[in-house]
Amino acid sequence: MNRNDVITEMRLAKGTDDFFACCISSYQLLEKLQPEERLDMFAMFFQMTEEHYFSKRDRVPISDNLRARLDDYSMKFKKLVHGLIDIFSPNGYAEQLYYQKLWDGFGVFLTDASEEEKGYCLFETALDRRTPYYELPLGLKMSNEKHDEIVDIIRPSIRRLNFAFNLHGSYRTETTSRMVHLMEELSDLEQKSVFLSYLAHRYEQRAIEDNKKTDESIPPKGNPVGGERKDATFLPISVQNADGENDSVETIASYQYPSLNGNEYGFALVKRGEDVYLTDQGKTLEQLDRIFELSEPDVIKNLVAILKQYGAIKQGNEVVMRIDNWDGNANEEENEDLMKVKLALFSCVSFMLNMRIFYV
């Protein structure tokens, strides 16, 4: 199989089954190529998926057999793939360097994987919205205090944005063109970035409101008549007590992430009783509590969904992930289970922290 074969197979793919088969054979080809040629082919593969597969309108439905296999592979590898993309994609790497790091990550974790499992990782990467990768400048990192300061400066523009957002028009471009004019009046990147984050929040609000209008005639399930049940799941620890808070805790190792959300952000590997887990040490909840009303049902729903997606739990004021079958090795380069948990927790808290851009 060569490049032309991959292109032909991609063009002929009529559905998920065909595309998945193409991912398996393409990964086998990538392993056989020389390093420089491999990186070019790696990048080209994802460009081709956009042009020759995802652009197709009519696709054959996925088979039941493949759906079951994908569910199995997802349990084992989905968090790994997303964790690698979470770590490497925001750093402004040149395209070739990004794909080199991604491929090296696959090499570390897939040494014992089957051909289908390797193909699944290529498949899952292609499905991610951050694929194909594009080299962009590093994103602006702004503290909460600085963000609030900029909001105060541009508040007149935000008031005019709110007014423009509620004007009725016949064309979709009427609102967006007004936003362009408002943004052009702002003086620098910081002001324009905060303005856009607020605009994104308004569009999210509109989507939620439209969805509620659609569903308002459907009675809610599981809640008594008279309103939604309040839930203190994400209240700070000073308000919400946690069982076992007085248990003896041994810190095994610490890991710093100074680039996470622009702060010195530390994970700790700890042992409490017989359990060993990785914890964010309460940093995520501390930052979220500055932005959200953490007892609001909509906020809780989103945060619980993120925890569930990544397999994390909330313990007191900490977001934690348990490490099963702990063998005592705290060296992440030697302990594959530890590295996978680190990637998953990094992805989980990054997702939570990035929710803040939709709130002013």
Please, what is the average pLDDT? 81
Distance between the termini: 53 Å
Q: Which H/E pattern describes the elements?
A: HHHHHHHHHHEEEHHEEH
Strand order, main sheet: write it out.
1-2-3-5-4
Strand content: 5-15%
What helical percentage do the residues reach? 55-70%
Largest sheet: 5 strands, antiparallel
Number of domains: 3
Number of helices: 13
What's the alpha carbon Rg, rounded to whole Å? 23 Å
* Poorly predicted parts: 216-233, 236-246
User: What class, by secondary structure content?
Assistant: alpha+beta
Instruction: Report the strand count.
Output: 5
| Global outline | globular
Explain this structure to me?
- 22% of the residues are buried.
- It is built from 13 helices and five strands.
- It is of the alpha+beta class and 360 residues long.
- It has three domains: 3-127, no CATH class; 144-215, no CATH class; 249-358.
- The termini are far apart.
- The longest helix has 27 residues, at 189-215.
- α1 packs antiparallel against α2.
- The protein has a five-stranded antiparallel beta sheet.
- Helix content is 55%, strand content 8%.
- It has helices spanning 3-12, 16-32, 35-53, 64-88, 95-109, 115-127, 144-153, 155-165, 172-184, 189-215, 283-288, 297-310, 336-354, and strands at 249-256, 266-272, 275-279, 313-315, 318-322.
